[in-house]
Amino acid sequence: MPCTRRYALAGLVLTVLSAPAAAQTHSKSASGLLSLTVPASVRLTLSVTSIAFPDANPDHVPSIPATAAVGITARARSAPGASVVLSVIAGDDLRSGTDTIPASALSWTAAGDGFRGGTMSQTSAQTVAIWTSSGLWTGTQSYLLANSWDYPAGSYSATLTYTLSAP
Amino acid sequence: MTRYVLLGIATAGLAIGQPLHAADTTANLTVNASIAAKASLTIGSAAINFPDRSPDDFPTVPAAENPVSVTAKAHATTGQNVTLTVLAGGDLTSGRNTIGIGNVTWTATGTGFSAGTMSAAAAQAVGAWSGSGSRSGTMSFSLTNNWNYAVGNYTATAVFTLSAQ
Questions:
Q1: Is the ipTM of this complex over 0.85?
Q2: Is 0.95 surpassed by the pTM of this model?
């Protein structure tokens, strides 16, 4: 929808510019109020829908790297100077039946302009990246799972929700 | 003239239009992690030695390496029994002479660790726990001394087994 509006505006301007002959012939000026709302808009793309941490001996691999990095593409049209924020929050701890691994055992490093490392939380959204104004940004997140002998054996899963916001 | 006016209006429309609205979008990522059953056992000394002592002065001879550290680590399902046992391969032997392996005993420290007597016939419990975890303790070995032992250098091998059942 925002793209459609942008094209409509361009069409209007071009139409006016393409009628110089008529304007010169009648030598009249005209004025009017054109109102156009360009709302903030955002688009977020993750390169994968899931990541996995393979089993590993905590003595040998104290931090387990995920099998794949998460590529992130964020697009935003925002007011000049306004902050565009990408955050992530875990829906719950990692769960395997009634067994859990705390969401805080997940951490990440990041690469790309505006991206930052962090530690997962299921209680408050954690900042993944901050930018200013409109733009298109790309980066990667590389997740780590803190390994421990205390984890019960099992197959664990959790859902992370990323939110891209522009004021 | 006309086109300049209209162009100016169109440009202004972008800047002074109605207040911009916030925009949010979300995307989900599923995280999977696998924790498989496994165990790791570390004994602080690969060998223990009982020095020669007079049975009158030392009715029991402590091992020179006491206390021996023991660390038992396991990934197990919740509630699953994790046990550490020791089984001797035979009596202490020196040529054709033997000292019954039952003369070797140990005391233990650490949560879940227990004292016991060595056996070559049945594995003896050293520790018992429930579920995953890393457990550390010590074992202090003693040899019951006796004037009846034949002179010699005796050896035996004991195997420690950590398992989740």
A1: no
A2: no
